[in-house]
Every structure is written in structure tokens, then in C-alpha cells.
Amino acid sequence: MAWLDAELRVQGLTRTGEPTVLKHWQISLLWRVPTSGGPVYLKAVPDFFAREVRVTPARAAGVPGAAPPVLAADEGRGLLLLADAGTDVDAPDLPALLRHVARVQRASLPLLPALGLEDRGPAQVRSRLADLFSDEVLLVGEEGGLTPGEAGRLRALRPELEAALTRLEASPLPLTLGHGDLHGGNVVERAGEFTLLDWSDACVTHPFLDANAAYLTAHGTPTPPEDIAAAHDAYLSEWADLAPLDDLRGLHADALRAGELFRALGYVDNIQPHVEDPQEWRGAHLEHLRKVLPE
């Protein structure tokens, strides 16, 4: 805790109690720290997620609402000291949240050259389909894995998915900074303003692959399809200077399916090869691949 206390002193703060562990697993450790100025948060990440320590300060400083204010960062140690940015959002204003996501994506463009992030755009996702659809990755016939029938149905969709990714690649939208794991648990709100959390999966990608309102809805409460559609239209309106709305809707429909491949690769490439106990994350990607299959 020496690093924490020293950085708090730099901010004119003192610790008023022992940190409370909020999350402790193989990919991060998060504490809430009581201080003389209110709670702050200390996050530690392993080497394979060091990008979060690099990306978060740039986002916080350069793009309002993209990340919590950063009080201190040490990439060598994998440590972030973050100010409190708000509370969890149980029932967000989905159109407002999706507009916020689009504005954050567009505002990120000047930051990309300095961040040195991996490419997980449409072309890269398409190039990984053979690996992603292999028996080994699909865990075909193993406990929790896809059945041979499910694997066959998924592989039969490959031409459609490749075509969707090709259309996204050819679209007039630029590649932006991708969050990689954008869901309701990674959003907080204060006074009607949203802030995005947890940039450990940050990458460069097509913005639409990252924008699915179904992942941002109220926890445990089904959201009517018309509300999801309205939120997506609000999101797309932020890109209407680049293409007609009907064209954007078509591209976004492609991205809703291809986005599940994008999210699955986040587990397959960035977590499963690196954690000490791969069993914890062994089948996490399959939830997304199953969503590609027609119901």
C-alpha cells in the first residue's frame, strides 16, 4: 500500500481506513479505498492487460465520459488509482447511453496513433474465423462445448458472416477505439452523465461491432425490442453525416451478428492463453458464438 498512500498524498488526500476488495480474480483486483476526500478506487491488472493502464489516462484526459478521472497510473506495476465517477446504472436511458457511446468513439480518433492497440476490426475478425470455428475452440463434444450439430450450423453461417464483415470493412465509417467488453456493468452515471469503465480489452475496431444496446439494458429485466431499436437509431444518428440512415441500419444489423464473433475473440485471444488457470475462462467465448445461431 506504499504506492497508494504516496499517490494519495500527491492528491492532497489521506487514507481513512483499510481498502475493501470489490473484485479479485485472474484478470484484475479492485479495491475501494476510503479517503479524506471520499472513496477512490485502486485497480491492479496483470501484464497481459497492461494496455488498460496506458489507455485509461488518455481516455480520461481527452474524452469526457470515456473513463473515470485518473489520479495516478503506473504501467510497470499495472496499477491505476481512479476517482469515483458515479454509481451503477440499473435502468439506463438507453438512447442517451448509446449516443454517449458514439460520441466517445468519434472523439477517440485523434488518440489512436499513440496508443499502439491491437487491430480487431472486421478484416481481422474475418481472418480468424477458421480458428474460431475449429473443433478445438468450439470444444465440440466436450462438456459445455458445442454439439456437433451446433458446430455444423455455425460453420454453415460462415459465408454470411464473412459477407457481413466485408460490408463493415468497406463502410465509410472509420475504425475507432473499441472497448471490447461494453456491457451494463461497465457503465456508471452521475447527474445524468455516463462514464465508461474497464478498458482492459481496448482495441482498434469498427465502432458498430462494439455497440449493442442489448448488452447495456437494465440488469435482469427484458427490454422490449422496440426500445432496443430506438436506442440503436439514437446511436446511428450520431453517424448520419457519413451515410444515409437506412445504410447505417443495414451495417449495424451486420455488426450485431458479427459483434458476437468480435466479443468471442476477446476471450480466445486476450484471456484464455494468458491466465494461470484456463479452466475458469475455458468456455466463456461460447456464449457469444451460440448467439450467432438462429433460435
Automatic annotation (TrEMBL):
Keywords: Transferase. It comes from the Bacteria. Gene3D superfamilies: 3.90.1200.10. InterPro entries: Aminoglycoside_PTrfase, Kinase-like_dom_sf. Residues 49-245 form the Aminoglycoside phosphotransferase domain. GO terms for molecular function: transferase activity. This is Phosphotransferase. It comes from Deinococcus terrestris.
